[in-house]
Amino acid sequence: MNERIREGLYHALLWLVSLVFFAPVFWIVLSSFKTGPQILAVPPILFFRPTFDNYAKLFADPAFEHHFFNSIALSVLAVLIAVAVSFLAAFAFSRFRPAATNFLMFLLLSIRMLPGSAAILPVYLMYVAFGWKDSFVAMTLFYAMFSIPFSVWILKGFIDGVSPRFDETGIVNGASWFGIIARLTLPQVYPGVVAALIFNFIFVWNEFLFNYIIGGINTSNIPVLLATNLSQGGGIDWTFLSSLTTIYIVPPILVVYLFQRYLLVGMTFGTVRGEV
Amino acid sequence: MSRIRFEGISKSYRDAIALDRIDLDIEPAGLTAVCGPPGCGKSVLMRILIGLEAPSAGRILFDGEDIAQMPAAERSIGYVPQSFALFPHMSVFDNIAYPMALQAVPRSEIAARVDQAAGILHIRPLLAKRPSQLSGGEKQRAAIARGILKNADIFILDDPLVGLDFKLRESLMEDLKDMRAELGATFLYVTSDPLEALTMAEHLVVMDRGRLVEAGPVDTVYYDPSWLRTIELVGFPRCNVLPAHLDATNAMCTTAIGRLPIALENGAASADAMVAIRPEHITSPASGTAPLGIGKVTLVENLGSESVVYVQLDETTLVTTVPARALASLDLGDPFPLAMRPGGPIVFDRASGRRIGRVTGAPGEFRDG
Asked: In this complex, is the C-beta atom of A186 within 8 Å of any C-beta atom belonging to chain B?
């Protein structure tokens, strides 16, 4: 009995904390169906007749389509490039262990130890010098570059868990390195690959600072649109903000929902794996 | 049939020598066991033969051709690694078919040969399963099936029975022997268990600390070894090794259990020697044996069908084996009459460990007389 009460308390606490985290999301979604005055009403209105005007206005705005496309294209392309490169790098680090592997792994991650605002100056100067500012390809490559270190770390942990005996079985039977990587290693670490894809997707999807500084009209994504179009007509446009934000959170929620079982494996880094 | 010859194979890692100038011929079309204590370099030697590691020095000759630089896939060697390494994302069938799938063998032929190998190893009902659904013994059989499906003249099995329970080991040992006879190929069998090596093999290669100790037919290596280290490493229970003082002129040597008549084989030898007496050469007194005296039982290890008995005779503890039924009344401290079968024990030079002769008689007449 005592045990059951304790369990009930734990569950109540978990629900409470989860609801606290979810409350702002809930509020922004709710607000997207309100009119401007309803959003700002005091006390807050919980029950009202929903309006779809905000979405109609948003979808009619050509800027929305442009930025939504940029967000999707940048995230998907950058993440695919980053994970492909990272997988090969992680395989090399894991299997061939170049001299000072641990130090190299540290160097790789060091760019992510700075806050973005500290790294922005050299990156900005470089992009200006190369004429890459506001280039879609250069923006994609920047996101790929920024996603690689963390991906290499995740994937190396997974590949370390795959016994080199598998590679050797391939080598003895005449498999190429590509065959070993694609047919023997990759299928055993796909939870790690999916986890890397999701983590990086969320990072690129949410990225504002670099897009704002080294990007331009060709590359700007939804976070930049949110920030720059916020104050129109002398005040903050809350209907625009709430409807765009609601659309904006759909792709990451879909991605996480579809792949959440891999995400959980990825968070444990999959380092404990037995040989079969 | 490929003849394998190692010539001066050495392998060193950054700070350790794993193999030290190995010269070795492998008998073709036989089952050769490579045995030695863990870390003796037997696996490294096999990995060099397979092509997974390059030797630091030396040559490997296949029918006279040096293959030290040849890629592993071209060497005509099938390999069953120690940890099975069955691909967890493939079915047992696909695992076994893997070597042939890589060589683009037609699907129908793959199916036929997988079926044949699965039949030999009694795993036909398991082909559709995943490796994670198999028991240890079944995994091992699947790994062996995959190993033998490479078209090869030589097959290397790295400690294939390790970690399996006794019954599985026995049945797998039988199957491996049958399989070798059927394939007619050269089998190399790596193990750290000398008993397993003796049971399985026709030829024995004994290694210790990166060096080759001795190689030859099983009977020769067991009964007629040339080196003391061989007799220490091969055989169970452990061999009785006694320090001895050699009297070459009278062909006698003096040990703690008496003076033994010997036949020297290699001319002059130093006076410091060792006599190695296998447990089976020490028995209870019977016709054809020479009495050693009456000792005292200090330890009995029951192995089921027989027991290992440690008997203290004066200052020396001798190990012997006794059939279990003869043992009913044996307690610690009991008197135990000992005798020796002449002809078995071997005399080695103490400094070099090289064999110098054989014990021809028994000490009885000198001891009590």
From this structure: no
